[in-house]
Amino acid sequence: MSEWIEIGRLEDIPVRGARVVRTPDGEVAVFRTGDDRLFALDNRCPHKDGPLSEGIVFDHKVACPLHNWKIELETGSAVAPDEGCVRTYPVEVSAEGVVRLCLAQAAA
Amino acid sequence: MKEKLVLIGNGMAGVRTLEELLKLAPDLYDITVFGSEPYPNYNRILLSPVLAGEKTIDDIILNDRAWYEENGITLHTGRTVVKIDRRNRKVIADDGTEAEYDRLLLATGSHPIVLPLPGNDLDGVVTFRDIHDVERMIEAARKYKRAVVIGGGLLGLEAANGLMAQGMDVSVVHIADWLMERQLDPYAGELLKRSLEERGMKFIMPAVTEAILGDKRVEGVRFKDGLEVPADLVVMAVGIRPNVDLAKSAGLYCERGVVVNDTLQTFDPRIYAVGECVQHRGKTYGLVAPLFEMAKVAANHLAHLGYARYEGSVTSTKLKVTGIDLFSAGDFMGGEGTEEIVMKDAGHGVYKKLVLKDNRIVGTVLYGDTVDGAWYFQLMKDGTDVSEMRDTLMFGQHHLGDSGHGGENAAAAMADDMEVCGCNGVCKGEIVEAITKKGLFTLDEVRAHTKASASCGSCTGLVEQILAATVGGDYDASPKEKPLCPCTDFTHQQVREAIRERRLTRMNEVMRALDWRTEDGCPTCRPALNYYLISTWPAEAQDDPASRFINERVHANIQKDGTYSVVPRIWGGVTTPAELRAIAEVAEKYQVPTVKITGGQRIDLLGVKKEDLPAMWADLNAAGFVSGHAYGKALRTVKTCVGSEWCRFGTQDSTALGIQLEKVTWGSWMPHKFKMAVSGCPRNCAEATIKDFGVVCVDSGYELHIGGNGGVKVRATDLLTKVATPEEVIEYCCAFIQLYREEGWYLERTAPWVERVGLNYVKQRINEDDEGRRALYQRFLESQKYAQQDPWAQLAQEASEKKKFIPLKQVV
Ligand code: SRM
Ligand SMILES: Cc1cc2nc3c(=O)[nH]c(=O)nc-3n(C[C@H](O)[C@H](O)[C@H](O)COP(=O)(O)OP(=O)(O)OC[C@H]3O[C@@H](n4cnc5c(N)ncnc54)[C@H](O)[C@@H]3O)c2cc1C
Ligand code: SF4
Ligand code: FES
Fold first, then answer.
1. Is B327's pLDDT higher than 80?
2. A4-102: CATH number
3. φ and ψ of B152, to 5 deg
4. What was the ipTM of the complex prediction?
């Protein structure tokens, strides 16, 4: 089952930043990178549950605010030598700038 | 007149004792040194790499002749002392040179054992002890092909490895069933043998040599079982015997070695002995670590300090064959009453064994992966009960607990009191301290300052890792003379200069102008660049929130559960019932779980949800509070004491002065956090002398102190100057802050900054250059126009900003 939901507009998400979508199963962080790509991941660092949405975004990565693990936004996996992975979700933006997130179908 | 000290034996233990002595009492003695060898003091351990062609003789000289001269030491090389005249207190050398002594230090080392075999005096039969031996071996390697090394211990294998490197065909003869039987168990011995065989070394073992064959020059070796092998060079490396010849002839009591007590005195209290020649509590030693410990103690007594005791040493062994990692310590064989934890990974050539007794490590053998050797050795020496960590012990220290993020390497995970360099007894903490305090960047500098890895060199890798972890690493490490981060080759200093000189005001301009390797920078360079831009061009540069750490973006400290803490500014630590009531109301309204008085004289509201922050700030603003910047690389607190207003000792109104200082300086962004304090008298209740800028009031004015901090590495302040009026205090303080803001590197606190640029430099810029100081002060005030705005008020009022604190969407 896949279910896309509208979550807001592109300009609501700061460049090299993130916003949070709160769901019954926890928070999903929606990132916007320097090249205006969007990525959605569980807002919980694989290390100790740090809120990834609050990290510094660079390239297609985010540095966790608690202990500086770097997480690949595309795959959700931690950059070596750290090990771990967070779940990612499909997210897309329409030509009109509407951002939609697919929660049910996990991509990883 | 100075006392006379004579040292017999210009080797590692003796000269180390002199070095230690010179540190303690440089002018106490006229020192004379006799050495049989024609060289100044050199590092005997490194004869192995010299033989292997990895180092030259010059590389291994520890103290050249100039050192002896500089320290006023008379050095007689190539002269062997043949007599000690104890009655007249003088020594006599083989060439007739005499020297009188008040105290005598014996450090005659040991003799290599020469097996009593027929043919042991033939040409081409050598031992492995000194430079002369090495020269003979290298010479033989040039002319001949076949070498036989007798002895499969540490020395024999290093000799064999060296000779192979010199191009010889080498066979090692060993009497025991496995190699290095005094340091390894059979399994590790077998692994070692296999990897040496892979390199082309041959082994004849177990085998007992019966005779060395040949006429004038050696031609071969015959064994007990009748086997004969041809040889052009025979190296005897079967052990050492303490050199007690001279001591014995002088009537000093000797057993296997010269017997000494815990203060390293022989039976003649004027005569001390250190090194391989001594026997202490029944033990003799053949490694440098214990000898250096002896050297420290002997020096302490020679310097008339008289409190150190030598109580014997526990030793560990490493093999210096490049590419082979081996570590052994203690009772590695185990046996009755012991348990063993063993890990074998033959495929990767890794073997680890820990021998436990009563839940304590009593011995270990590591082969192939020796990273944790130092840690096990420490646990062993400390007698630590390991039952709690037994399950993970084998995986090494970095698997313990949850102390680190995975990016840390083994070196970073090491505790400060863990020994890194076994030879010189240097712990990690000392190395880190030397690196940070003295600003060291290279291995050679670390060696020079700490002696770590300066002896056998087998901890070099670890020292390098510590160096990397200390000066490098991108996580909150203080920047040094290295590239700012992996995105660039430029240093902090170069980047700062480029920003100023080329008038760069935007981050992408900096990255382009300086050929940044990455499009986006990284979490190390972006916050640094952002700071450099806004501190250099306060009016022009645009602050970039995306390049700030979360705390400075949401103006609160993130906590481990993702909530935040809120600390309102309480000027100088002085508050009112009304203010306290307002804080209490806010705490109740937002159900703040913890309210705490901080170490900085204010109140911390901990556990606040992100979305509550703007509303809470608005309420606090309404009660007159602004942000305390407890989260920022900025002015934190100004601690004060009650001062002359109330205190019977107070000399000035320290409270009012503190408040005044805080009002002028709050809000300014700095390379690192900045703390101040004002104490009303030298009793210093506000702890002003461990602050970045501290004021101690005295009757006649104000002492200004700079560059202190508590924290990880406590540093007391340096006195900058004394001034007469509060106005001057403000001017000096702001000028000092501005100098630091303009020239400090990002994440470099004032303490390391002052040490880097030197106190004199700061004095010159602030005290001696009146015009310069006033200019700094003006620039500070100018930048404050842009900085001194309460971030809470700004964020709490702007709707677009406030939005960022709440979820983008709530899905039900
Ligand atoms: C709240 C407080 C502890 C307390 O409950 O008393 C505190 C809390 C933290 N300190 Fe501190 N420090 C607090 C006073 C101190 C003091 C005492 C003082 O200021 O007189 C020191 C030693 C003095 C000094 O700084 O020289 C101190 C030395 C540190 C250090 C080590 C700094 C160093 O140079 O070595 C750190 C780590 C750092 O800054 O990188 C640190 C870092 C922290 C952080 C920010 C850790 C972090 O990154 O999350 C803590 C934030 C907790 C929070 O969210 O509120 N804290 N910290 C104190 C806040 C004072 C205030 O009102 O603002
Ligand atoms: C090849 C090799 C590799 C080694 N590798 C290691 C290692 O990896 N790790 C480790 O810890 N240890 C190692 N050692 C052992 C270490 O070098 C010795 O333990 C250390 O050098 C002993 O110091 P010492 O001062 O007691 O003796 P020495 O350094 O031998 O100094 C004694 C000096 O006294 C001189 N002397 C003797 N009698 C007289 C006299 N009557 N008059 C004047 N001079 C005299 C000798 O000529 C000699 O120069 C190694 C040794 C060798 C030979
Ligand atoms: S000492 Fe400071 S940094 Fe450490 S736990 Fe306490 S508040 Fe946190
Ligand atoms: S929780 Fe993310 S790095 Fe520790």
1. yes
2. 2.102.10.10
3. -105, 40
4. 0.69
